[in-house]
Design brief:
36 strands; about 20% helix; about 35% strand; alpha/beta; Rossmann fold; single chain; about 700 residues; seven-stranded antiparallel beta sheet
Length: about 700
């Protein structure tokens, strides 16, 4: 029960205070004039003011409420380092027992795990949420069981009571981590790019480990790594050379030393997109024909292509009486192109070329060697491919996938994609480029016809398109380290002109050119992985049929087998929810792929040494403290508000003495007429006293 006086004035308080001022002036005047009843007059004025203010006695029936202690338990990834889980469990059990022993005190426990999208330990967010769910007047304190490495200090709430930290980990812990300071997002293929990094030391290193070097390995796309011995604690610039276009996953790492806290931060992954500075293409045009400009226009339309066009306008056997001195002002640099600088080209295209002695056999042999060493050749064949002057009968014949039969078929046909071509990235989905249907709703007429094809026997490679009578129209093959494509017709220009609706000539020729230049997106045997949030989207492209599966090895080293479903011909896909951020290695026994989901070393492992230094700015204003669990579990005791709430071996909470009001009763101290009667009596007494004198 609680009682106190309240007022309910008949007049507004400003009027009451003005009346009190007038009364004070009158009493002061009476005192100045020496009236002996001045004090009776003052009491009468007080009685009149009390009658106006109407004092009442308020009585409350109160039910006391228990105090609340908040317990925030950090169970993020760094709290799963050796020994910390056991420390956390023991500390939680001790706090629960201590709070249960305190009178009129309750415990609210909240567990914190890794934040979404590698946000780290959101301990302060959890504390703010717990505080918002409880009446602040009842919160007697908060206890954090954590390693102190929190990542949301900017949202730390204002505490109405002491905040304490029970620190996991050990004083002797030490660790090394790999820090990528700068890395480019793009790099030119074949040119080194610089990545700045450092191996950093944390914690109390034993004397034997201080100043030691480590063996740093660097691997691109899961290939065999190169190892370098690097010093610890120094910023390094390491050159990395990209060997293909598209995404290159560069993986860095070093082995953990004995006694090191964790190896989760000993690796890092950088994803760099490889781009070609310029694509150098050599186009060799033989006999002039209607489709000669198709190749030239395609290649010149791409600003990233440097095109060298070697055109044979006048065969040697032509006799027209023109003086030799007037045939050419500048000699064409054939030796420079086909001998000295042939390795600088990314692609060589022969468009209806025939053997006329213009290019010596040595040059053609050089082109064959260029392909075997990783170059690319594309043959766009015309009728001359079926003659004795065919390029097949040169040094290139050994790497060409189609042997001419000597027959040229002159008849109309619609190019068709073979069953194998439906699975090949060069030709898959080309049907979608058919002409638009007429406005009357009729079906699309499909591609326009071609009118000629050279009959060949496909001796090797993959036939992805066929022409008249099922004859091979487009054959793709690999020779040594290089690529070879054979198109057995010179009629692609009919699609360019829109003959019978045309067709996807630009898309087909673009894919052909980029496949020969080894663009990753057009590899027929490839394994891709993309991340969407915490989900890995896996794609396996293959020309072979049959069930597929991929093995995923995550940051914890445990393999998981994921079956793939054939979504389209030659394209097998799966979606797999990754349990954690970090580095994932995918393999199906033939191909490997490295994928970084988030950083290879999550934020939780950037700083692994347990420390309360970050939390000091939050603890000190509340008079709280921090204690290491390895030094023993503290006692919990009650302390008065404003006092220091932590000491050696103990932490304190502040009792709040909160209550719930069950009933309120209000009764006047005296009725108004009683105050008036008292005031009248005092006034009369003052008059009588002064009259006698």
């Amino acid at each position: 029960m609680n009682q106190h006086v309240i007022f309910d004035p008949l007049l507004p308080w400003p009027v009451v205070w003005a009346a009190a001022g007038v009364a004070l002036v009158l009493v002061a005047l009476a005192l100045w004039r020496g009236l002996s009843g001045w004090w009776l007059r003052a009491l009468a004025a007080v009685a009149l003011l009390a009658a106006i203010a109407q004092p009442s006695l308020q009585t409350e029936d109160r039910n006391p409420l228990s105090d609340i202690v908040l317990l925030i338990v950090d169970e993020s990834s760094s709290q799963r380092l050796p020994g910390r889980e056991e420390q956390t469990a023991a500390a939680v059990a001790r706090v629960e027992a201590e709070i249960a022993a305190l009178p009129n005190t309750e415990l609210r426990k909240l567990t914190v795990r890794d934040g979404a999208e590698d946000a780290g330990s959101l301990v302060m967010t959890a504390l703010a949420e717990a505080l918002a769910e409880e009446p602040r007047a009842r919160v007697a304190g908060a206890i954090l069981v954590t390693d102190g490495q929190v990542h949301d200090l900017d949202v730390a709430p204002s505490m109405p009571a002491p905040l304490h930290v029970l620190l996991t980990g050990r004083e002797a812990d030490w660790d090394r981590r790999l820090v990528i300071q700068t890395a480019p997002a793009f790099g030119i293929i074949g040119e080194p790019v610089a990545i700045r990094l450092m191996v950093e030391e944390q914690g109390n290193l034993p004397p034997a480990e201080k100043g030691r070097s480590v063996d740093l390995s660097i691997a691109i796309d899961g290939a065999e790594p190169n190892t370098y011995t690097v010093p610890v604690g120094q910023t390094l610039e390491l050159p990395v050379t990209l060997d293909h276009g598209g995404q290159n996953v560069v993986q860095f790492g070093f082995e953990a030393a004995d006694g090191e806290l964790t190896d989760r931060n000993n690796a890092a992954v950088v994803q760099i997109n490889g781009v070609r500075d310029r694509l150098r293409v050599l186009l060799v045009s033989g006999e002039p024909h209607a489709g000669e400009r198709t190749w030239r226009n395609l290649l010149k339309s791409d600003a990233s292509v440097d095109l060298v066009h070697f055109t044979i306008l006048r065969p040697p056997e032509k006799q027209d009486g023109v003086p030799v001195t007037e045939l050419s002002l500048i000699a064409f640099p054939t030796r420079e192109l086909f001998v000295e600088k042939i390795e600088e080209f990314d692609l060589i295209i022969f468009d209806r070329y025939r053997l006329r002695g213009i290019l010596p056999s040595l040059y053609l042999n050089n082109i064959r060697d260029y392909v075997l060493n990783g170059g690319a050749v594309l043959i766009a064949a015309g009728p001359e491919y079926a003659t004795v002057e065919s390029v097949f009968y040169s040094g290139l014949g050994g790497i060409l996938p189609g042997e001419p039969t000597g027959r040229v078929v002159e008849e109309g046909y619609k190019p068709a994609i073979t069953a194998l071509g439906a699975r090949h990235p060069v030709t898959e989905g080309l049907e979608a480029f058919a002409p638009e249907p007429a406005e009357d709703g009729a079906e699309s007429p499909g591609w326009g016809r071609w009118l000629r094809i050279v009959d060949v026997d496909a001796t090797q490679g993959n036939v992805v398109m066929e022409g008249a009578g099922g004859r091979p129209l487009l054959i793709l093959d690999r020779a040594g380290e290089g690529r070879v494509a054979l198109l057995t017709s010179d009629q692609a220009w009919l699609w360019t002109r829109g003959y019978e609706g045309g067709g996807p000539q630009l898309e087909l020729l673009r894919r052909l050119a980029h496949w020969t230049m080894k663009e990753p997106e057009l590899e027929e045997e490839a394994l891709f992985a993309d991340a969407e949030g915490q989900t890995l989207k896996i794609t396996r492209r293959s020309l072979e049929e049959g069930p597929r599966e991929v093995t995923i090895i995550g940051p914890d080293g445990e393999p998981v087998i994921v079956p793939l479903t054939e979504a389209e011909p030659g394209r097998y896909v799966a979606e797999w929810p990754a349990p954690d951020v970090g580095l994932y290695r995918l393999t199906d026994g033939e191909l490997d792929r490295v994928m970084a989901l988030g950083p290879a070393a999550p934020k939780e492992f950037e700083e692994t040494i347990a420390s309360a230094e970050k939390l000091a700015s939050v603890i000190e204003p509340t008079n709280g403290g921090d204690l290491r669990i390895e030094e023993g579990f503290p006692d919990i005791r009650a302390v008065r508000s404003g006092r220091t709430a932590a000491g050696r071996g103990w932490i304190g909470i502040t009792p709040r003495d909160s209550y719930l009001t069950a009933d309120i009763r209000v009764s006047p101290l005296l009725p108004a007429w009683a105050f008036l009667l008292i005031a009248t009596a005092l006034a009369v007494a003052a008059w009588l006293r002064e009259g006698r004198r």
